[in-house]
Amino acid sequence: MYDKLTVATLAKSRMDWIARRQEVLSENIANANTPKYVPRDLTPYNFKEALKQTLPHVEMKVTSPLHIKAEVPDSVNVVSSKRTYESAPDGNAVILEEQMAKMGEAKSAYETAASLFQKQFKMFRTVLSRGS
Asked: How many secondary structure helices (H) and strands (E) does the chain include?
């Protein structure tokens, strides 16, 4: 039941999402000169949903009338910033600088997730080497 609850599982989930996002962004860059091409992107990675998939459903329970019932908000308020879109005369909406910035963000996020993944296994190796 708890075998899926590891930092490695969550890091792998994040790395898979980032790899897919890099594919989509590279397609955008490759089509920078394609008339009427509209750039695509993935929906943002939802850590809360990834965690829900690995955790069993647990609810808080008040066992005494003296306990204070904890209230957990269902969602976080997210404010979208207004974006202006540019388009070339041929209808292509790819902005190379924007796509490259997104690729840089993806690279940084991937390196962070990979580092967490590696540290999880280093911790296992350390524990196993001291156990014998």
From this structure: 3, 0
